[in-house]
Amino acid sequence: MATEVYLVRHGETMFNQLNKVQGWSDSPLTVKGINDLKVTARNLSQVHFDKMYSSDLKRAIDTAHLIQDTNEVSVPSKMKKLPAFREVFFGSFEGDDIDQTWEKVAVAGGMKPERNVDKIIETLGFEKFRDATKKADPRHLAEDSKDLDERMNQAVEQLTKETKGLGRILIVSHGDFIKSLGLHYWKGAKNKEIIPFPENGSVARAVIHDNDKFEIVDYNVKSSELNNL
User: Total domain count for the chain?
Assistant: First the structure.
């Protein structure tokens, strides 16, 4: 039995609003974030989920509970947290200004200072971009491509085991992590280095097939477009 997965990015947070690197650090959902999530939740209120999950970071947990509380057709159950679905770890850069961080990453990758992350990824490639982030981190704690690939594989494997026999599930995760999944598993990705960064409250829809193959079939579906899924 195939399992349908609705993969939701959490709502806007204070760090998102302040243009700060967030990663494993946490900041609360903003008023805008909550209001935008209400649209997502309302448009998912008639979608039946056999189980709901979230990463173990509070912004994801709060998002998942808001969606669960609004849903009218799913049986309420205890929310299970899956740490493997937490955001990419940025090490010493967490809490720093995003633009200044990307400049340092670009230089570590052999480029001139550059603040446009898409240009950096297009120049270096996604794996080298991750490796440059770890290299630029003064303490070298940030996840590089190997670290992230291992955790992403673990996350997909765990989700596959967790959802055996379930028809449809929801899991709330994070922008960089969902984008990383998209680069690996979205069949609609035409450029394997550059795909859109998922919006807050957006949904990626995936299928775990009977042979345990994980495949993303819709990506970055905005809250206002969820009725088209």
Answer: 2
